[in-house]
Structures are given as structure tokens and as C-alpha cells.
Amino acid sequence: MNPIHTLVYFLLFFISFLSSFHAILHKRDSRAAFGWIVTCFVLLGFGPILYWLFGTNRIRTHAQSMFRRGYWNHRTKTERDHWYNCLPANHRYYKNDYLGILQVSDKVTRRPLMMGNRLETFHLGEEVFQRMITSITKAEKFVYLCSYIFEVGEIGVEIIKALDIAKKRGVQIRVLVDAFGEIYSSPKVDKLLSGYGIKFSKFLPLSLSLNSLHFNLRNHRKMLVVDGKTAFLGGMNIRDRHLSDYLPKKNRIADIHFQIDGPVVMELQEAFLEDWYFATSESLPWYASKNHVVSGDSVCRAISGGPNEDFEKIEWIILGAISSARKSIQIMTPYFVPDRILISALNTAALRGVEVEVIVPKFNNLIFVDWASQALFWELLEKGVKIYYQPAPFAHSKLFIIDQTYSLIGSSNWDSRSLRLNFELDLEVYDANFSETLVKHFENTKEKSQPVTLQDVNKKHWLVQSRNSFMKLFTPYL
């Protein structure tokens, strides 16, 4: 054999060996590790390329590296001493049906549960946007706004004008928009904000820098924090498509958003301060006051999820809640592509008698995600999980309710992008009365929705089933 060919073969074999060794060390799933080992050695040269492109979580590695270098470390230790109205360890919630969920969430989160909060639910964009504008106009100290998409439309312009008026009154304004989400708007929102002199930053702007090479490292959070007293959180971006009179109907987006008043707003404030420090290296002052306690019954906690964490925090909390369910599990999400662990948890809950119901949109704006989702339906339906198709307009709502008493609301979807790749912000709520309002919405939606049966899935043409199963292979990247 030609010496050059021998050297090339040896190098390719050595690269395959190193790649396989990396898979053995870092792959949690032994089947995935074995599959990549075979790929690396069968496809010498090409196999290792596939592994380093698709088999390694470079996003998590990069985000954790930035976290260790202090990109999110804006606060001092003494700031936590200013928190108040935390749920005491001897509270009755630790002695009843909440115990199982609390034990998990207490251990995997870095924030305490806060008592004395009040939540209000909005189903129409007109209502929540007007309430947000009113809060901005009444601001006295600061307004922090974070949105994945900030569209320069009718609502976007109104919000910017309200921010400008508040700025002129001496209110500190900060706006953070995801760089990838910004491309949904034309013209770009940064031009209008800059024209008004409003301090604005993009989360990981796309450029040739090392940070920008990770297109999947996205900030999917949607929140507005005003004076540390009032906050807004949910699934609505700032765009006209959330308006109920947006025509045609197929282009509208139905969603849910929430106003929060009470001590837990401090935790949402902290989440924004961390993201702003990461994006700008500017450490904004902490603000907390005991005068912000309201007469609310909701016990809440803000949960920041993202690839900078050592584990899938939000998914672990979801798993803890599923295992604690005794009567019902109700899920509403636009993108339902659960991983094997979540599928097993839902099936196990259904098998032990828990009523598990999932509502997804009939017409999805991301067709590939819809196809992958359909490929998973049969194994859930087979075990007794009930699935419903919600009619148009496109339903972007995100709800997770356990036993009609515990709720998880916010920006997270039921897919790998939300639970492993994106920076998400959710709120867990311990309040039966609040959950009851969400259950009513869920039940009303279910009445208008079309049940999906196992027969419906099995009678699909084999070409459709093949297409869906093929897209299921890409669920970690959708």
C-alpha cells in the first residue's frame, strides 16, 4: 500500500477512535453511544464529522462555559437577603399533595417559593398589551422588557412610544430582544428604539464571533417587569398577530399571557438582570421593597431554564409534577415533541389511572414539528393518553396543570428546543383557584377540539407515516 494512503488511513482511524472515545465518555444513552461508535468506524472520516456536527451538544458546552466565566453572575450575595415573604419550611404545602412536586423543585431551582402573589389571565392581545402600556406609563423607577420577537407593528410602535414617554420622566428603560427573533420584524426594532434613545440590546447578535456561531442559543423568554411590583409573563411576543381582529383568521395567533403582582416579581426581575448582564456586561441595581406585598393567594416561583444549567431543570420539574399527579394532567402546547423520558412518564401516569389530556393546534406554523409530533401520537394513545386538535387560529398557548391545583405557565414548549436549547422562563403556581381558571379555559378549548384516535393514526397512508417517522429522527434539532 502506498505510504501516503497508509498514513491517511491511520489518521482517519485515529480520529474515529478519538470521536468514539468521546461518545463513550459523554453520551448518557448507551444506545446512542454505540450507534455513534459504529458510525465513526464504518464511515471513516465522514462518521466523525457527523458525530461532531450532530452528536455533541456544543450549545450546552458553550453556554455552560460562558456561565462558568461569569456571564450571568451580576448579583452580590447580599441581594438575596432582601427577598421577603418566602414560603416557610413548615408550611402546610409541605405536608399535603404538593410535597412530591416541592421536593423536586426545591432541589433543582435556585429561587424560593414566594407567598402573597396575585395573577390575572389574558386571552386577547388587545387586553394584555393595553395593560402593559398602562403599567409602563405609570412606572416610577424602571421598566425591563424582554421579548423573543418585537415586531414593529401597531402594538410595537405603541409600546415604544410609551417607553419613550416613561424615559423622558426619568424612568430607567432597558429592552432585550433575541437576535434571531428580531429577523421576524421588518423594519428592525433596533432602528426605532435607537431613534428614541431607548437603551436596547440583542441577545447573542449574529456575527462572525465565536458566540454567534451557535444559532440555536436563543432567548425565548417574554416578560415585562415594572418597578419590581408588577410583571407580565407568558407566550405572547410583541406582534400584531396576537390581536383578535387580525385578519385573515388563519394568520392570527391565539395565546395566553399573565399579569403578576407580588413578591415573586423580584425573581422575574432577577432573571432579566442576569440576561441583561450576559448581553451587555452592565450590572443593573437590585430593587426590592416589602411594600410590594399584595393580598394574593398564589404561591409562586420563577424558573429559569437554559443550556447554561447542568441539567434540564424545567423538564425535571415537569417529571416531578407528572409523578405526583393523582387525578389529572392537562397539557396545552403548540409544539408537542416530548423525549423518551417524558413519553414514558405520561404513559406511566395514564396506566396508573391518571387522566392525561394533551391539546395541540390542528394547523401548525412549523410543519416539520407537526410531522414529528404525529409520529409520536400512537404510543401515547395506545396507553390511554387523550390527544385533541385545536382548530384555527394557530394556538400558541402553553399550559401544564396537575390535579387542577398546580400550574406551570410561561414560555416553554414540550420539545427539545425549549427544554434543552432555549433560554426559557416559567412560573410554577400553587393555587387551586388560579388553576381552576386555567382548567375552565382548557375544558372550553377541548369542547371545540377534535379528538385524535389510534384508528386515525393507524389509517394514515404509509407514505405519510414514513414522512412523519423520518422527521421524528430530527426531534432534538426541531
Please characterize this protein's 3D structure.
The structure is a single chain. With 478 residues, the chain is α/β, with parallel strands linked by helices. The chain folds into three domains: 3-56; 66-98 and 114-299, Endonuclease, Chain A, CATH 3.30.870; 313-472, 2-Layer Sandwich (Endonuclease, Chain A). Helices cover 41% and strands 18% of the residues. The protein contains 16 helices and 17 strands. The chain has helices at 3-26, 30-42, 46-55, 58-68, 99-108, 125-137, 154-168, 189-195, 265-280, 313-324, 340-351, 367-381, 416-421, 432-448, 454-458, 462-472; strands at 114-122, 142-147, 172-178, 200-203, 223-226, 230-234, 253-254, 257-261, 298-305, 328-332, 355-361, 386-390, 394-395, 399-402, 406-410, 424-430, 450-452. Strands 4-3-2-5-6-8-1-9-16-15-14-10-11-12-17 form a 15-stranded mixed sheet, with helices on both faces. Strands 7-13 form a two-stranded parallel sheet. Helix 12 (367-381) links the parallel strand 11 and strand 12. Helix 1 packs antiparallel against helix 2 (30-42) and helix 12 (367-381) packs across helix 16 (462-472). The protein starts with a helix and ends in a 6-residue tail after the last helix.
